[in-house]
């Protein structure tokens, strides 16, 4: 009787090896494309909606709107600029012991939660135009550039609207920082 020996087909073994080798790069590709769902910069993750600027003849004004974060991590607006104002601050509104509302620079800036929305409204957080270069007329437009914590920036255009409510007092952030003469800055933060 002839001896029967089983030899696995050589071609089949080579093919199995090739499939295993090919699977590895496919998996790596799948992982890296999944990671790219999160925006690379804060500017790419955050958009603004319903933005507008308060009409004013001069002096101060403010910009409002909704900051919307489509990403998986919180993002923060740390500063803003606009050709309409020589200086801009990020403000919040707080009530003092007497219940009088006052606005002041918001420490740390505006945080927009992951998949969340931060509303900038009269009487609440707002982008403060400290020193208008000229009048802001109803119906005109101005641009505002936001800088995020990662250094990325986004610029939006806002329409100027009439608004007469919420004339809060202004509380400077650094009381007595430069001028001590006649400081009547209301205490804040207790
Ligand atoms: Cu303000």
TrEMBL record:
Q: Show the Gene3D superfamilies listed in the entry.
A: PCu(A)C copper chaperone
Recorded hits in Pfam families, A to Z, give:
PCuAC (PF04314)
Residues of the region (Disordered) are 166-190
Question: Out of the domains of life, which is the source?
Answer: Bacteria
Which protein, by its recorded name, is this? Copper chaperone PCu(A)C
Q: What organism is listed for this UniProt entry?
A: Nocardia sputorum
């Amino acid at each position: 009787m002839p001896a029967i020996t089983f030899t696995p087909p050589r071609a089949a073994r080579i093919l199995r090896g090739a499939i295993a080798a090919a699977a590895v790069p496919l998996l790596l590709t799948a992982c890296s494309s999944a990671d790219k769902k999160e925006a690379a910069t804060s500017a790419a993750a955050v958009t603004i909606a319903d933005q507008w600027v308060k009409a004013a003849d001069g002096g101060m004004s403010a910009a409002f709107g909704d900051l919307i974060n489509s990403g998986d991590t919180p993002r923060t607006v740390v500063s803003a600029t606009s050709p309409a104002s020589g200086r801009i601050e990020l403000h919040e509104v707080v009530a003092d012991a007497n219940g009088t509302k006052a606005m002041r620079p918001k420490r740390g800036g505006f945080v927009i939660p992951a998949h969340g929305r931060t509303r900038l409204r009269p009487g609440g957080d707002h982008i403060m135009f400290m020193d208008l270069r000229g009048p802001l007329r109803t119906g005109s437009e101005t641009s505002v550039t936001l800088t995020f914590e990662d250094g990325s920036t986004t610029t939006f255009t806002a329409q100027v609207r009439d608004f007469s409510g919420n004339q809060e007092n202004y509380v400077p952030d650094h009381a007595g920082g430069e001028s001590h003469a006649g400081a009547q800055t209301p205490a804040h933060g207790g």
